[in-house]
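user: can you give me the structure for this one chain? tokens are fine.
assistant: on it. calling the predictor now.
[tool input]
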Amino acid sequence: MSKGFDDLLAKVSQCDRKTVSVACAQDEPILEAVKAAKEKGIADAILVGDEAKIREIAAGLNMDLSDYEIINEPDTTAAALKAVELVHNKKADMYMKGLIDTKGFLKSVLNKEVGLRTGKPLSHVGVFEVPGIDRLLFLTDVAFMTYPTLEEKKSIVENTVEVAHACGISNPKVAPLAAVEVVNPKMPATLDAAELTKMNEAGEITGCIIDGPLSFDLAIDPEAAKHKGATGRKIVGDADVLLFPDIHAGNLVYKCLVHTTACKNGCIITGTDAPVILTSRSDTFEVKMNSIALAAVVAEAMKNTK
């Protein structure tokens, strides 16, 4: 079981060497992350984009490009299509966003001819190593689905459980979060949480344990569960997956962790035919490197499943 990113890196070392295809790679933090990922044995990279700018940035990073395949395509739309096609055709294992807007990048992911569509809804998962918590936390969805319906929440859980399994967590505990831990007909988030719990108990959602609704403190803090007399729940402060009711709740918690704790994190898009690395422009190169490592572990699990 992976309890932190060091464990994930150890898992990567046991996998076949992976390759990440980068769309519009002429971006300093991206090249810095790709360089670190290669040096740590996480993954090789194919760099698609404006070759002159890629080489200029790499020179400033003392990055030797002789071991990288570079595909020169200055046009961002064309570069994204070439980069995603490499993954579509199994010439690379995962797909990463570089210096291209998110809308254009996702358009390439969903391209009918060369994209990575599976027919499943796409969702985002952020994986966190937080000081004081003895396990990885999987936060979802904090960046993609805005106001997920019950059926979309079911898909988000299924997508995220696959990522947790890839990280070595065989039966992750999923906490559908709400402001309270009891069902309140006037609070739709609690109704959805209770329904997801019933789906899990009926075998409609498998590979995990779901217990909701849960407040945030009961999901992650055993002492809070004890003080509130909630020790009879299936989750008593030991949740692995935090399922947020909407993008606002998820994004606020995500950014609170990033900007107020000494955490480590990485993020991917799930529901695709291969892992998709979509990080923010404000993310550090370490977050981008961690995301490559996470994607490599998931890619290995997907290969073994197929």
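assistant: here you go. The chain has two domains: 5-118+272-305, 123-260. The domain at 123-260 is CATH 3.40.718.10 (Isopropylmalate Dehydrogenase).
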